[in-house]
Amino acid sequence: MTDRIPLPLPHSFWLHLVLPRAGVLLALVVIGTALRVPVGLLYVLLAADVVLFVKQALRFQASADNHLRGMGGMTLIWGGYLVLLVLVFASISLWWGAFLFAGQPVEPPELFTDRMDRQYAAEYELTLSDDHTSLTFNGTITHGLTKRVTTLMAENPQLDTVILTSIGGHIYEARGFANLIRAKGLNTTVKGDCSSACTLVFAAGTQRGLSPGARLGFHSYALEFGPALLNLDLKKEQDKDRAFFRSQGINESFLIQMFDEPSTGLWYPSRAEAQQVGLLTP
Known about the structure:
Layout: H1 9-33, H2 39-69, H3 75-103, H4 112-121, E1 124-128, E2 134-141, H5 145-155, E3 161-169, H6 171-184, E4 187-195, H7 198-203, E5 208-210, E6 215-217, H8 234-247, H9 252-257, H10 271-277
Parallel strand pairs: 2-3, 3-4, 4-5, 4-6
Antiparallel strand pairs: 1-2
C-alpha cells in the first residue's frame, strides 16, 4: 500500500484549510448567537474541532512539504501559515463566545399580558414629586392605568394631589382612576390640557384647580373602533358620568350641555365659566 499523495498546495489550501474551517466558523457563529447548546456538549464539540483542526493543519503541511520538494517557493506556504494563524484566533474567539452564550441564564419568554401591559404603560407617564405628596399623570388614559395608580397610592399614603395632562382615552380606566382619587380624598389640578375622559378624573378631586394656561375640554362619547357595539349605549355611558359630575357638586346647567360638542371636536369652557359651574373649587 502506498501513502496518499498530497494535493497541490493551492488545492490543499482551499480544500483542507479554508473551506472546512469556514464551515466550522459559520457553525460557531450560530452556536454563539442563536442556537443555545448545553455546555457539556460544547466540550465534546470543542474536542472534535481540535482534532479536525490538527488534521487540517497536517494535511496542509504535507502539501507544503511536497511543494518544497518540487522546488516551489515559500510565498504560498507563508501565506497559508498566515491564514492558518488567523483561523486559529478566529476559532478561539468564536468558541469563547459560544461558551459565554451557553452559560447565560435562559430568560422565560415574555407573557402576552405582560407585553401588553408594557406597551400600554409606554403611552403615559406617572411621576411622583420629590416629597411624594403629588402624582403627575401625563399621557393617554389606557389599560392598566388604574392598577398602577392603585399600587402607587398604596405605597405613598402621603399623596394629596394629582396633576393631570391628558387628551383622554379609555373611559373605564378613567372611571377607575377617578374613583381612586375620590376614595382617597385627593385634590386635582390641570397642567396644560385635560380633555375628554381626563375631565372625569379631574372632577374626582376634592379641591380642583387649573394652572395658568390650562384648559378642560369636553365632547360627546364615541367608540374608538367602528360602529356601535352590541349592548353598549353611549347615551347611558354619558349619563353615568354626568351623574358622577353631579355628585361632585357640578352645576346642573353645565351638566346639560357638557356632552353637546360632537366627538370630533372639543368645547373648552373659560376659567370663569368653570369657576361659576363648580368645576373649579374656591
